[in-house]
Amino acid sequence: MKTLIIYTHPNHKSLNYAFLQEVIKGCEENPYIKEIQVVDLYAEKFNPLLEFNEHKRRRDMYRDPQLEKYREQITWADKIVFVYPIWWGRPPAMLMGYIDQLFAANFAYRDKKGLFPDGLLAGKSVVCVSTMKGPTKYPLLWLNNAHKILMRKAVFNFVGIKKVKFFEFGNMESLKGGHTKKLEKVYQYFKKVVY
Question: Residue 23 and residue 180: Cα distance in Å, rounded?
Fold first, then answer.
């Protein structure tokens, strides 16, 4: 299994970075995971801004040469892991800009007759590891699970990815947030996951 890890946080001293390290450590110890690639969107200075004009059209995003490396990584991967904070009830704008550009028509999906497109990333699986300041149940009780619905249905299912797992950790700015236990949970998952 080839695993692509997409890290989206500007601080390498953050708890999100600690989660990234546990994901990597677990993957490296998993006999089913043969190769790992890590993309650090902030460190790479990924440009999340969409730009469309007479020279750069939305319908051509799937062949934008500036995004070729990222398309090759997604094509290569069997499993895609996203590590990010939840800010304002959703992933950071940096990550959404990555998704806006990479999950483009004729690469991630193809329009067809009917309500839903052909998902061209079918067969891959996704894991989202996310943290937030508020309580773990906050997105469910206050936001009607908006984060999970956005990521699972509006993004991943749309492009054909049906197997999606979430680690959504709350109370992460509290000294009683159980950081060590949560880091261990992520490590153990990636150490043992088969697909």
Answer: 14
* CA 62/CA 59 separation, integer angstroms: 7
pLDDT digits (tens, 9 = 90+) for 28-71: 999 999 999 999 999 999 999 998 888 888 888 899 999 999 99
Report CA 59 to chain centroid distance, whole Å: 23
Residue 137 has pLDDT above 90, yes or no: no
d(CA 37, CA 28): 11
Give me the count of residues in the chain.
Answer: 195
Of 162, 59, 144, 173, the C-alpha closest to 107 is 59
What is the model's pLDDT at position 11? 95
Measuring CA to CA, which residue among 116, 121, 100, 105 is closest to residue 47? 100
Closest by CA to 22, choosing from 164, 195, 179, 194, is: 179
Beta strand 118-119 with 109-110 is antiparallel
